[in-house]
Fold this protein.
Amino acid sequence: MSVLDPFEVAEIEMWPFWEISRRDAREILNRAECTIYQKALKGSKFSVILNEKEIKAAEEIDLPKSIRVSVLPTSLRRQREHPDIRLARRARTIANLARVISERSVRPGIRQTLWAQAQRLEYLARTRLEEFARGHEE
């Protein structure tokens, strides 16, 4: 199910856990997932993350040093970050999510994602309108 438009992904961040045993992996990775989720929530402009699955509460842990990489060349990233392109794609993502919700029995997480996407669309549209009001047409 598409809760996130891959077109919007410009960077990825990974936390490698090279030194964990198979026996401890599930517990450590669940705790890491909760820690990363909380970190992402705190850094979110809207205090919500596009995540269909509910993250189980767990004791947070110290994370290993992360690796963050760009998945797009600079020129392509600039093109994809154009507000009008982002608005159109976000609206399409919302329409697809709403369609899925109307056709299936879904968990609350996807409804939360729809709401988060709507907030982001509203923010993009308002910001773009304000740019035009200030005379910054493109």
Notes: The chain has a mean pLDDT of 89. Residues 108-133 form the longest helix (26 residues).
